[in-house]
Amino acid sequence: MTKKLNFIDLFAGAGGLSEGFIRAGFEPIAHVEMDKAACYTLKTRAAYHYLKSIGKYETYKDYLKNKITRAELYKEIPDDILNSVINLPIGGENNPKIHKAIEVQLGNRKVDLIIGGPPCQAYSLVGRARKEDSMKGDPRNYLYVQYAKYLEKYAPKMFVFENVLGLKSAGKGVYLQNMQKLFDKKGYNMKLFTVEANNFGVLQNRKRVIIVGWKKELNKQMPDLEAIRSNDKHTVKELFNDLPVLQAGEGVDKYISYTKPSTDYLNNSGIRNGIDILTQHVARPHTEQDKEIYRIAVSMMKDKKRLNYNELPDKLKTHKNRASFFDRFKVVKADAEYSHTVVAHIAKDGHYYIHPDIKQNRSISVREAARLQSFPDDFYFEGVKENTNRTAAFKQIGNAVPPLMGKKIAYSIRKILNGN
Known about the structure:
Structural class: alpha/beta
Largest sheet: 7 strands, mixed
Strand content: 5-15%
Number of helices: 15
């Protein structure tokens, strides 16, 4: 019987990459994350996996149906599972505490894999576009050094490091060169892949860098992640079609029902996985001015045109900066094979993610954003306080690795580590 492979997730966020690896048969040892709301999300997802494994899935359903509180849900979960989520920033003074917590979870096992990617703002092309030197001196530029320290301590056979495309050009390539030298010093070869989420079956245009590292003595052929292709053709409309109609400011955080049967894509991707429970289909409120702009933007889509902010009536143009970000209002195109990229800015406003149905006249809901990222519908995004989590959920979703992409990467890694 093949041994179940394990992993540590650093800079775990809401656990999108981790979810993919779990679905591919890996076992998490620990998740390390500094954001408190994301840690609650990780704990709730750990509760889901535990309860499902022991045949008590109904308890998790009761939580989604708002029959029990988060505290009551957590009482059903062993402390060691909840404690595997470590809410600390990775770095000098915290590392000993994190190591101690990991070692409690690890016992006498060895680590097979480390996954995760440091916060990407420091390498962001968008941030650098606003001001060329805006990220210079940002300590997040050097979090890969901390990542390397964890490689040195736990000596996994392999690692998977995810980040934005800007990593390749940040500091004119110096960061990436230094990263490769450091990983080499710690005993690892590495290979960089530029991947697109839509090639992994995610209905979203999301380009990312994936670095696969392996111990030098591991004499294996590495997978070509850039060669992965999903042959199925679907449209974004399939992601939204079974969800209840909402107006701006409407929706229920916990438990409402679907309005239409599932589709092949929703079933095969695992987004709808057999339960008739829908949560977090909540739309943010909008001003009358924004809703008027949304109507114009959606109407233009009928002629396959995108709204240019500068072409709006003067009464609707309130932003002083009209030279850049003139596409600040953008519709999620329903008949396309994939949407534009979901980013963390969605937590601030929904102007870049307008729902394609003019009758609903709003930006997309939390659940719709999660579906664009391929999160299953039973994946619940927490806030620091229970049921006050729309903004926190949007932020976690925008920063996440799509689980469907993570799953296919995980299968490639699993073949190497299992020797087949």
